[in-house]
Design goal:
The protein has 163 residues and is of the alpha/beta class. It is built from four helices and nine strands.
């Protein structure tokens, strides 16, 4: 079933709420840069984010769209990404970076906002699939000691669910 996209902010598109797909116990939500998102089962290759639930863990999968996200879009992206997390009691967040090679300060600021929200609510946040370039950025900013980093999504999920 094709998705209908609507925009709250220029350049950021989200699947219409009535068409959100249920995925393994939770909902899947797309935050994309491409107004022509067309697949309910997989995100567009231009999506900035794909958010899904796996049991108690919320997975934020970074897409190629965030590599070119404009700094002016940070407020809209922040609202769309963080609003669903505010309702969680003890959020367990996994940020899967396996589909991207790099990101800039715009996405880094968004990750920090997400982490602050998670910490304020007593939850945990971890990263997986970190490329060498992203690992260097995290090391330079000392965030590699703040967020646990796992090679794979599976390792990160197991760790978050074990704690």
């Amino acid at each position: 079933m094709p998705l209908t996209a609507w925009s709250l902010y220029p350049g950021i598109y989200v699947a219409a709420p009535r068409l959100l797909q249920i995925n393994r116990g939770g909902c899947e939500r797309h935050l994309g840069m491409d107004p022509l998102m067309s697949s309910a089962s997989t995100g567009s290759r231009h999506d900035a984010f794909q958010i899904e639930r796996h049991g108690e863990v919320t997975i934020i999968e970074a897409g190629l769209g965030l590599e070119r996200m404009e700094p002016s879009l940070i407020e809209g992206a922040s609202a769309l990404l963080l609003d669903p997390l505010r309702d969680l009691e003890l959020p367990l967040i996994l940020v899967d970076l396996s589909k991207i090679d790099a990101f800039g300060s715009t996405f880094l600021a968004l990750l920090i906002r997400c982490w602050k929200l998670v910490m304020d609510k007593g939850g945990m946040m971890a990263l997986s699939g970190v490329s060498p370039r992203i690992r260097d950025l995290l090391r330079i900013t000392s965030l590699d000691v703040v967020w646990p980093i796992y090679a794979t999504r599976r390792e990160a999920l197991e760790s978050l669910l074990a704690d």
